[in-house]
Prior knowledge:
Blueprint: E1 3-7, H1 11-22, E2 26-31, H2 35-39, E3 48-49, H3 51-59, E4 72-80, E5 86-100, H4 103-116, E6 120-123, H5 128-137, E7 140-143, E8 169-176, E9 188-195, E10 199-208, E11 211-220, H6 235-249, H7 251-254, E12 261-262, E13 268-271, E14 276-277, E15 281-283, E16 289-292, E17 298-299, H8 307-325, H9 332-357, H10 362-370, H11 375-384, H12 398-409
Parallel strand pairs: 1-2, 1-7, 2-6, 4-9, 7-16
Antiparallel strand pairs: 3-5, 4-5, 8-11, 8-12, 8-13, 9-10, 10-11, 14-17, 15-16
Bound molecules: flavin-adenine dinucleotide.
Flavin-adenine dinucleotide binds at residues 7-13, 30-33, 45-49, 125-126, 144-146, 148, 150, 170, 172, 269, 271, 294-295, 302, 305-309, 311.
Amino acid sequence: MRKILVVGAGQSGLQLALGLQAHGYEVTLMSNRTADEIRTGRVMSTQVMFHTALQHERDLKLNFWEHRAPRIEGLGMSVAGPAAQRVVDWTGRLRGYAQSVDQRVKMAGWLEAFAQRGGRLVVHGAAVSDLDYFSRAYDLVLVAAGKGELVSMFARDAARSPHREPQRALAVAYVHGLAPRPECPDTDAMRCNLVPGVGELFVIPTLTLSGRADILFWEGVPGGPADVFQGVGSPAEHLSLMLGLMQRYTPWEYARATKAELTDARGTLVGRYAPTVRHPVAHLPGGGLALGVADVVVVNDPVTNQGANAAAKCAASYLASILERGEKEFDEAWMRATFDRYWESARHVTKWTNAMLGVPPEHVLNLIGAAGALPAVADRFAAGFDDPSDFEDFFYEPERTEAYLASLTGTHA
Ligand SMILES: Cc1cc2nc3c(=O)[nH]c(=O)nc-3n(C[C@H](O)[C@H](O)[C@H](O)COP(=O)(O)OP(=O)(O)OC[C@H]3O[C@@H](n4cnc5c(N)ncnc54)[C@H](O)[C@@H]3O)c2cc1C
C-alpha cells in the first residue's frame, strides 16, 4: 500500500487525505491543531464555494453540511457613486448554487471523519527538518499548509507573481441579525459592493457554529479609509468600525445591518497577504522532495472569492494524478506535471483576480454597467466565479467585450 504524508488540515489537505484514504492509500495527516482547537478557534475565511468545487466535495461524499448551509442562488454586484448612492446594481443567477460553510465547522468535522475512518493523525506543527525525515519514510510528501511558514521552502515564481505587497487589507465579521435583502427577500444571494478608492464590501450568507449567519467582509485598499482594522482592541470595536464604514460608503447594506451582532467572540478576522505563485517542488536539505498544494503554491487575494474553490480543484486534480500514477515513483518530473495540470485552471483564477485588484479599465466598467440592463451579462459574470476561464472570451480585451455586448444588443462596433 502506498504511503502518503499530507501536511496541513485545511480545504486541500483534508480533501486530499480523505480522497486518498477512500482509495486505499495509507495516509498520515499532520495538523498543527486538533479538531476541537479548530472548532473553538478564530474564523479563517469567508469560504464561499461555487458549483464545480462543491461537486468535488459531493463526489467524495464530503458534503456533510449541504442540507443545512444557505443556498446562494445569486451573485450581486453594486458600485457606489461619489454620494454613496448605488450607480450600478444587479444580481446574476448562478447556474448551480454556491455555499459557505464556516471552515471551523468543516475542517473540524472532516478531521474527525479522517480519524474515525482509520487515518493516522499527527497533531504537530511540521518543520522543514520533520519533512526531511518523513520524505524518506513516505512515497510522497504533500505540503498543504496554506499561508503558513512552510511556504518558504517553495521559491517564488516571479514571472507569475506581479505583486510583492498585499493589495488589500482584509477585515471579516460573522454576524447574526442581518435583515433580508429587500430586493430579493426570499432568495439568498451574495453581494460584492465596489467602492472606488476604498475597496470592496462582500456580504455572504453562511453556516457557522451557531447556525445560519451572514459574513461582512471589507477588502480595503491599503492606506485607504477601510484599512483601519490592524490593532483594533475588541471584537465589538471591530464590528462597530465595519458598520461605520458600511453606513458611510454602502448605506444600502448598512440599512440591513442595524441589528447585526457578532456570532461569537472569535467571529472576526484581520489580515493581509501578497498574492504569490510559487514553484511547486521543494528540495529538502537531506535530498528528499515535497510537492506544494493549493495556497502553498498559488495564493490569490480573496477579492474574487476563489482560494477555497481553487484548493478544492487542486485537491481533485492532484488526486487524479496520484491515482493515475499507480505504483510508479512520484519523481520530480511527475510532481511538475501534476502542478502544470492544476495550473491549467489555476492560471485563469490568478489572471482574473489580479485584474480585479487593479483600477478597472473603461471597457470593464462598461461591462459591469451593462449587466444592469442585460441579465445575460449579469448571469455570465456570475458564472465566471465558478469557471474563471470564461473571462478570457469577454473580459480582458476591449474588442472582445465590445463584440460580446454587441452580440447581445444587436449593435455593431
Ligand atoms: C478573509 C478571507 C476571505 C476568504 N474568502 C474566500 C471565499 O469567499 N471563497 C474562497 O474560495 N476562498 C476564500 N478565501 C481563501 C481560502 O480560505 C483559502 O484559499 C483556502 O482555505 C486555502 O486552502 P488550503 O488548503 O490551501 O489552506 P488552508 O485552508 O489555509 O489550510 C492550511 C492548514 O495547514 C495548517 N498548517 C499551517 N502550517 C502548518 C504546519 N507547519 N504543520 C501542520 N499544519 C500546518 C493550517 O493551520 C491550516 O489548518 C478567503 C481567505 C481569507 C483570508
